C-alpha cells in the first residue's frame, strides 16, 4: 500500500492572503483536485517500474485541465489515483480538501469505450448509475431527462446500443457519469486513442463531441480532468494543458491556454492563442509520441 503525505497535501490548503492576490476569497478554498509529490512504483516479474515520479498538480473548482504525453507516461495511472482506484507509493491525493484513501463515489468517470449494457436502452443505461448508488428514482429520471436533452439524445432514449452511433454511445456514457452531479469528472481518452483507429471516433464525430463536451462543461461547471493523445483536442477543450514526460511520468510544463471560456470551434483553431499553445506542446513533446 502507498502512503499519504498529509504534510504535502495540507501545506497550502489555507494559504495566507497576499496583497494584490487575484481573489482573496479563493486563496483559502481547497482545490477540487490536488496531487502532492505523487509517485507510483510497482514490481513486475523482471524489474521494478516507476510509473509516476514527483507529480504535483492543483486543479481549481470548475476548471478544465487536459493531460497529454507519450504512451506509457502514466496519464491513466494519474486518473486512477484521483479516483482512489490506486494508492500512491509516495505523496498524497485530495479531492476538495479531503484525502483520497480509497475508491471515491463522488466522481464521474468516462472511459475510452462506452461500456454500455447491450440489453438496456440508452435511458436505462444512464439510470444504471442511480440503481447502483441507490438514488431516489424520481429525481434520477428527471436528471436523466435533463442530460438527454443537454447532450442531444432526444428521440433516442429508448434505443439500444447497437442502434446508436459511436458518438451517441459516448454521449450516453457521459450522461451516466454525470447523473449524480459529481463535482469532478475524469475522462480517459473518451473519444478513443488516436493510435487505435478501430477504437476511435471518426474525425468529424470527434470534432462534434469536442464541441458538445465543451458546451456541457460550461453549463454544468464541473471540474474536468481529461487524458488525451490529441494536442488540438487538449488545447481546444482546456483552460490548462499538463504536458508529461516519458516514463517515469513527471510534469514537464503546464500550458495556460489563454482562450475565452466560450469558444467557437473554427475561430478557436485559427486563433493565435491556439497556434501558440499547440506549437509549444509539440515542441515540448518532440518525438515523444503524442499525435495530432
Short characterization:
The protein is of the alpha/beta class and 292 residues long. Helices cover 33% and strands 21% of the residues. Helix 6 (203-220) links the parallel strand 7 and strand 8 (223-227).
Features:
six-stranded mixed beta sheet, four-stranded antiparallel beta sheet, ATP-binding, 2 domains, Rossmann fold, alpha/beta, 292 residues, Putative ABC transporter ATP-binding protein
How does this structure look, described?
The protein is an alpha/beta fold. It has two domains: 32-91 and 102-106 and 183-292, P-loop containing nucleotide triphosphate hydrolases (Rossmann fold, 3-Layer(aba) Sandwich), CATH 3.40.50; 118-181, no CATH class. The chain contains nine helices and ten strands. The strands form two sheets. It has a six-stranded mixed β-sheet with strand order 6-7-8-3-9-10, sandwiched between helices. Strands 2-1-4-5 form a four-stranded antiparallel β-sheet. A hairpin with a 4-residue loop joins strand 1 and strand 2 (48-59). Helix 3 (122-133) crosses helix 4 (137-150), helix 3 runs parallel beside helix 5 (166-178) and helix 7 (231-237) crosses helix 9. It is globular. It starts with 5 loop residues before the first helix and ends in a 7-residue tail after the last helix. The model is unreliable at 12-27 and 287-292 (pLDDT under 50). It comes from Streptomyces aurantiacus JA 4570. One of its GO terms (molecular function) is ATP hydrolysis activity. Residues 33-271 form the ABC transporter domain.
Amino acid at each position: 500500500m502507498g502512503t499519504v503525505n498529509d504534510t504535502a497535501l495540507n501545506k497550502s490548503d489555507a494559504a495566507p492572503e497576499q496583497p494584490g492576490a487575484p481573489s482573496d476569497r479563493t486563496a483559502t478554498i481547497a482545490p477540487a483536485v490536488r496531487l502532492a509529490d505523487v509517485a507510483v512504483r510497482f514490481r513486475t516479474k523482471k524489474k521494478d517500474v516507476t510509473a509516476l515520479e514527483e507529480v504535483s498538480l492543483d486543479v481549481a473548482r470548475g476548471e478544465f485541465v487536459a493531460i497529454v504525453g507519450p504512451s506509457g507516461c502514466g496519464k491513466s495511472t494519474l486518473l486512477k489515483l484521483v479516483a482512489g482506484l490506486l494508492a500512491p507509493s509516495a505523496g498524497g491525493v485530495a479531492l476538495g480538501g479531503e484525502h483520497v484513501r480509497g475508491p471515491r463515489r463522488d466522481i464521474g468517470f468516462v472511459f475510452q469505450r462506452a461500456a454500455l449494457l447491450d440489453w438496456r436502452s440508452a435511458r436505462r443505461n444512464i439510470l444504471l448509475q442511480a440503481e447502483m448508488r441507490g438514488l431516489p428514482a424520481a429525481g434520477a429520471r428527471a436528471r436523466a431527462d435533463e442530460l438527454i436533452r443537454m447532450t442531444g439524445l432526444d428521440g433516442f432514449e429508448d434505443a439500444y446500443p447497437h442502434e446508436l452511433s459511436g458518438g451517441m454511445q459516448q454521449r450516453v456514457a457521459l450522461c451516466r457519469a454525470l447523473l449524480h452531479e459529481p463535482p469532478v469528472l475524469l475522462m480517459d481518452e473518451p473519444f478513443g486513442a488516436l493510435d487505435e483507429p478501430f477504437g476511435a471516433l471518426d474525425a468529424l464525430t470527434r470534432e462534434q463531441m469536442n464541441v458538445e463536451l465543451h458546451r456541457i462543461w460550461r453549463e454544468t461547471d464541473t471540474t474536468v480532468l481529461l487524458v488525451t493523445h490529441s494536442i488540438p483536442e487538449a488545447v481546444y477543450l482546456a483552460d490548462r494543458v499538463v504536458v508529461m514526460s516519458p516514463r517515469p511520468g513527471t510534469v514537464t510544463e503546464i500550458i495556460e491556454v489563454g482562450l475565452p471560456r466560450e469558444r467557437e470551434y473554427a475561430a478557436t483553431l485559427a486563433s493565435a492563442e491556439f497556434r501558440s499553445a499547440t506549437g509549444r506542446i509539440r515542441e515540448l513533446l518532440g518525438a515523444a509520441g503524442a499525435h495530432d
